Amino acid sequence: METFNLEPLLSDTSISVALYExxxxxxxxxxxxxxxxxxxxxxxxxxxxxxxxxxxxxxKAFYAKTQNKLKTKLIYTEILFNLSPSNKISECFKLFGVExxxxxxxxxxxxxxFSEVDKHVEGDICPLSKLDNLCxxxxxxxxxxxxxxxxxxxxxxxxxxxxMAAKEIR
Amino acid sequence: MNLLQQGAEARLFAANFCGRSCIVKERFPKKYxxxxxxxxxxxxxxxxxxxxxxxxxxxxxxxxxxxxxxxxRSIIFLEKIDGETVRQHIVSVRKMQEDSxxxxxxxxxxxxxxxxxxxxxxxxxxxxLTTSNMIIKTSDNKLDKKTNEIFLIDFGLSFSSSLAEDxxxxxxxxxxxxLSTHPNSEELFSVLLDAYKDVSKKSSSVLTKLEEVRQRGxxxxxxx
Lengths: 170, 224
Fold this sequence. Notes:
Chain B: It comes from Clavelina lepadiformis. Chain A is of the alpha+beta class. Chain A has helices spanning about 25-35, 50-65, 75-85, 90-95, 115-120, 130-135, 135-145, 150-155, 155-165; strands spanning about 1-5, 10-20, 40-45, 105-110, 125.
């Protein structure tokens, strides 16, 4: 688990990001979030190249909340929405949300909410650096339509992040 | 956030974004313009900048990564490129050497010519090409033989066009900038154009236009 401050946009907000393997209760966690028992976003670990990608999506989501400009119901669903290149909300849940039988889950929560979330997760916490092995780079490259020409000048993470940030400008 | 630069169009701040150093570019309201026009222009320039940065990268041109965009406050967060502008580089190189020639900068001029050829072949016009809008990244790795990693920045006036006229004007603007900031740099600029010619697939019509624009200036005649 690592904690990050969302400066300079929101220096009073810190989020905790944790990666779990061998998770056995993904569907129950999803229900708890739906019912408002725990406050967190569950992300399919295979869809994250680097924790920076999550930080960009989270900054956008928490900032949109302060501006009353959330496009989805919750900050946490907004994080999933921001991760996706598409503007279709249902599609982004399918792409970036966890399936009921998922075993690798990336959890994002406010720093103060994290310990409560952690209690409910049945799985093994592991270092975020493991994301690099877990993620499906080929699939993300295709999803974000990253060209080989582009990869000559910047990393896949940077291409993805740039497109996420510029999503509303087409 | 520390103020780095205040220009006519925007303010630049240095900041840290989730562990990476970044530049915050804020387009502030211009009181001297009619409010509606000001808002329209500011919004347009922001979106032009974002679009061009993305399209350039797709074409294989080095540009800063975008971290965050807020269209309502007209703020963008961009990757900070560590290095000096091409302008600073030329000035400091000339100060260091004894003669006043530009020979040692020829490789860099060639590199710029290649980049602009790529830019124009992708039908992108920068709109404000100057030696200050290009940054040479200082590489940590000294053994790296890729000597010049030149980034293009400041795409607020950029647009998309396939017309030789627009590309010619783009080069003309750079030529004027070169000649006015760096004395006797005619030869240096022609080195740049030669590289442009070698790489660009449509260079002949663009260079013909450039010649035409040189005769009459940047603006076309206003008749009709």
